[in-house]
Amino acid sequence: MDVSHEINLLVQEIQRLGTKNADGQTMVKFGVLFNDDRCANIFEALVGTLKAAKKKKLINFQGELLLQGVHDNVDIILLQE
Q1: What's the pLDDT score for residue 81?
Q2: Mean of the pLDDT values across residues 34-59?
Q3: Does residue 74 form part of some domain?
Q4: What is d(CA 34, CA 68) in angstroms, rounded to the nearest whole number?
Q5: Domain tally for the chain?
Q6: What is the pLDDT of residue 77?
Q7: CA 12 – CA 44 distance, rounded (Å)
Q8: Is residue 68 part of a domain?
Q9: pLDDT for 34-45, tens place per residue?
C-alpha cells in the first residue's frame, strides 16, 4: 500500500474517532486509534503512518515515536481537515 493512500486513510480514521478541541481541530488519543479494530485491520504499521503524516505536517503529536501503553494518552491532532 502506498504511503499517501495510508495517510489519507489515517486522516479519515482520526475524523471518525476524534473529537474537536478548543481550537476546533480534530484530535484523538493514540490509545484509541491504536486499539480500534478497524484501524488494526487497515494499518500494517500505524506508528510509521503517523510518523509520515507528521513529517508532511498533516498531524501533530508530542515526541518522535509513539508506543502502545506508554503513549496511550498522547493527543494526535489533525492540522488539516
Answers
A1: 77
A2: 94
A3: no
A4: 7
A5: 1
A6: 97
A7: 16
A8: no
A9: 999 999 999 989
Q: Is residue 52 part of a domain?
A: yes
Dihedrals phi, psi of 26, to nearest 5 degrees: -80, 135
Q: What is the CATH number of the domain that holds 50?
A: 1.10.10.1540
User: What's phi and psi for 31, nearest 5 deg?
Assistant: -60, -40
- Of 64, 67, 55, residue with least CA distance to 4: 55
Stated pTM of the model:
0.92
Q: How far apart are the first and last CA of the chain?
A: 22
The three three-digit cell numbers of residue 68, written as one number: 502502545
Confidence of residue 3 (pLDDT cuts 50, 70, 90): confident
Report the alpha-carbon distance of residue 20 to residue 11 in Å, rounded: 14
pLDDT at 80 over 80: yes
Q: For residue 50, what are the domain limits?
A: 3-62
CA distance 3 to 27: 21
Q: Determine, yes or no, domain membership for 80.
A: no
